[in-house]
């Protein structure tokens, strides 16, 4: 559980996004702090209407970066001019607003509700397939609430997925603390079978596999990569949080994988799929992390070049074993997270840049701001189409686009 402080500037759309961020944070067990100086993380939701506003945003970001343990900047200015914060030397993570709650999780897995009921939100169906995990990470507080994995049967989950499709879902998000260990409690590793069965449901829709720890998918990674290769409905996307490039740190974190297993998973997907998205997370500044360990994480990031990266600065969660470890100084943690965030923006920017000029099919998933829509391509990369209402583009439709530009963490597309 983290404490947060959130500040919002600008239009009603920004305020709505801040409400969504807060709702997700509270659902994840986080709570508001009395002010930025007492928060584990401060979130600045920015606006960029006129030049004077930009100067104010930069000034406020500078103040918050000094006052708070960790700063996240989101909103219009973050997306349109994220470079401005970096050029001003502001130590902050610049994120799309829907990536903020995940970032604040501090490397822990997302919490799903106890009853694992599916939810339909617009054309997105959320399908929690199991609750709990098979790990005992030393920094994790989520585990206390969720316990050991408890997996409903494949039939039950397929029935829930079918109901979501019949109710209008175009994107089914298969979620859980650790989807990779689905079925372990029953003695069988059933994720590949479940994904195959969901993809067999009649209808035009896409399936996004949620967080799967490298330790959970290693061992079924070849079978899983084959499932991805044969099912067009599955977004070619996995979220496998490695957390560190150092085996010593992974051991201190009590992660179930080591760097070698993570590499094997990535290499297998590289072999089987032409274009796919690797999403991974790094915790920077874990108490035992040395300068060499940090450099190993940077090297791993340079080597595997994930298309989506979440960098979290370590913060202690009460009651966990890592909270009793002697921590690193705030300056070291800030320097390391700044270095990794800069590398991340370069790596992710190159991935989106390489999409420019290509054509691809996208699913329109939700409305964006200012008459835009947010779409996902087959590798779950975000593509924004502007003037959507004017062109009669509707949420839930599939269409072909040409990628005409990019903005580091998403691309712009024009219907063809
Ligand atoms: S896998 Fe680790 S971080 Fe995730 S819920 Fe389990 S113990 Fe927590």
UniProtKB/TrEMBL annotation:
Residues 353-416 form the TRAM domain. The lineage of its organism: Archaea, Methanobacteriati, Methanobacteriota, Stenosarchaea group, Halobacteria. Binds 1 or 2 [4Fe-4S] cluster. One cluster is coordinated with 3 cysteines and an exchangeable S-adenosyl-L-methionine. InterPro entries: Elp3/MiaA/NifB-like_rSAM, Methylthiotransferase, Methylthiotransferase_CS, Methylthiotransferase_N, Methylthiotransferase_N_sf, MiaB-like_arc_euk, rSAM, rSAM_horseshoe. It comes from Halorubrum vacuolatum (Natronobacterium vacuolatum). Its cofactor is [4Fe-4S] cluster. This is tRNA-t(6)A37 methylthiotransferase. Keywords: 4Fe-4S, Iron, Iron-sulfur, Metal-binding, S-adenosyl-L-methionine, Transferase, tRNA processing. Residues 2-109 form the MTTase N-terminal domain. Belongs to the methylthiotransferase family. CDKAL1 subfamily.
């Amino acid at each position: 559980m983290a404490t947060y402080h959130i500040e919002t500037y600008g239009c009603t759309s920004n305020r709505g996004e801040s409400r969504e961020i807060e709702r997700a944070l509270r659902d994840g067990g986080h709570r508001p702090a009395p002010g930025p100086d007492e928060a584990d993380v401060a979130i600045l939701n920015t606006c960029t209407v006129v030049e004077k506003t930009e100067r104010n945003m930069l000034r406020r970001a500078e103040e918050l970066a000094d006052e708070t343990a960790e700063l996240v900047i989101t909103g219009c200015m973050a997306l349109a001019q994220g470079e401005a914060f970096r050029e001003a030397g502001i130590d902050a993570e610049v994120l799309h607003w829907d990536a903020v709650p995940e970032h604040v999780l501090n490397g822990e897995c997302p919490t799903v509700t106890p009853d694992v009921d599916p939810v339909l939100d617009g054309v997105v169906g959320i399908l929690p397939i199991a609750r709990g995990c098979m790990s005992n990470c030393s920094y994790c507080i989520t585990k206390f609430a969720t316990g050991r994995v408890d997996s409903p049967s494949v039939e039950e989950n397929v029935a829930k997925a079918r109901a979501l499709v019949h109710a209008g879902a175009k994107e089914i998000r298969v979620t859980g603390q650790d989807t990779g260990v689905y079925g372990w409690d029953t003695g069988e590793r059933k994720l590949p079978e479940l994904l195959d069965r969901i993809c067999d449901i009649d209808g035009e829709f896409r399936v996004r596999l949620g967080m799967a720890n490298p330790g959970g998918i290693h061992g079924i990674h070849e079978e899983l990569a084959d499932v991805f290769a044969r099912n067009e409905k599955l977004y070619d996307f996995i979220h496998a949080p490695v957390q560190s490039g150092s085996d010593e740190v992974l051991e201190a974190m009590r992660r179930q994988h080591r760097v070698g297993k993570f590499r094997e998973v990535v290499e297998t997907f590289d072999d089987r799929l032409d274009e796919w998205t690797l999403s991974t997370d790094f915790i920077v500044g874990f108490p035992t992390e040395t300068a060499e360990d940090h450099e190993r994480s940077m090297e791993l990031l340079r080597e595997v070049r994930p298309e989506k990266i979440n960098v979290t600065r370590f913060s202690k969660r009460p009651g966990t074993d890592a909270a009793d470890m002697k921590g690193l100084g705030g300056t070291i943690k800030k320097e390391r997270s700044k270095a990794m965030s800069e590398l991340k923006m370069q790596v992710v920017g190159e991935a989106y840049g390489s999409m420019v000029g290509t054509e691809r099919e996208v699913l329109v998933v939700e409305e964006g701001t200012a008459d835009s829509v947010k779409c996902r391509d087959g590798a779950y990369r975000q593509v924004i189409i502007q003037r959507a209402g004017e062109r009669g583009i509707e949420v839930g439709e599939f269409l072909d686009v040409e990628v005409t530009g990019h903005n580091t963490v998403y691309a712009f597309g024009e219907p063809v």
